Amino acid sequence: MTSPTTTTTRPAPAPAWAAAAPAHDTGLLLLRLAVGLTVAAHGAQKLFGWFGGSGLDGTGMFFESLGYPSGRTMALVAGLSETLGGLGLALGVLTPLAGAAVVGTMLNVIVSAHWDAGFFAPAGIELPLLLGLGAASLALTGPGRHAVDRHLPLPRLREHRLATGAAAVALGLAVAGIVLLFRN
């Protein structure tokens, strides 16, 4: 005579890649790529005239029409902030500072070029607000595990802290406010 056996069904083990990459890390990577590469492309328009941009000379003239002194220099600063900040976000390199560069630049974009057009695209604050808030979110939360920051010898970046991100966002907003004071 045989004794009754109980069969228990065990869930299948998760694949190795799923254990190594929690959903929030993958989500942060996707957000970093979307925000970072979009902002970097806008910076490349200003710096190099790529993607239908005006380059430094054309962007400089536009900046002067917005009331910025030394338009070409301000175009260079904005282009570098967007390109380097965007690439920093996309790669997860010095993420709080990259986020701060983008936040500060987007605040200037909103106030100087888009505010009077209302909220919605094509001329409203919708896109720069979304990019700025995305950058601020990444600065505050950190880049996730799929980032260069995790391999740098800086503990504050490897183990992201809210205070680091908040200080970086505050720095970006302060610098943006100072730059806005220079406008005519």
Automatic annotation (TrEMBL):
<keyword id="KW-1133">Transmembrane helix</keyword>
<keyword id="KW-1003">Cell membrane</keyword>
<dbReference type="GO" id="GO:0005886">
    <property type="term" value="C:plasma membrane"/>
</dbReference>
<keyword id="KW-0472">Membrane</keyword>
<feature type="transmembrane region" description="Helical">
    <location>
        <begin position="84"/>
        <end position="107"/>
    </location>
</feature>
<protein>
    <submittedName>
        <fullName>DoxX family protein</fullName>
    </submittedName>
</protein>
<dbReference type="InterPro" id="IPR032808">
    <property type="entry name" value="DoxX"/>
</dbReference>
<dbReference type="Pfam" id="PF07681">
    <property type="entry name" value="DoxX"/>
</dbReference>
<feature type="transmembrane region" description="Helical">
    <location>
        <begin position="119"/>
        <end position="141"/>
    </location>
</feature>
<feature type="transmembrane region" description="Helical">
    <location>
        <begin position="162"/>
        <end position="182"/>
    </location>
</feature>
<comment type="similarity">
    <text>Belongs to the DoxX family.</text>
</comment>
<keyword id="KW-0812">Transmembrane</keyword>
<dbReference type="InterPro" id="IPR051907">
    <property type="entry name" value="DoxX-like_oxidoreductase"/>
</dbReference>
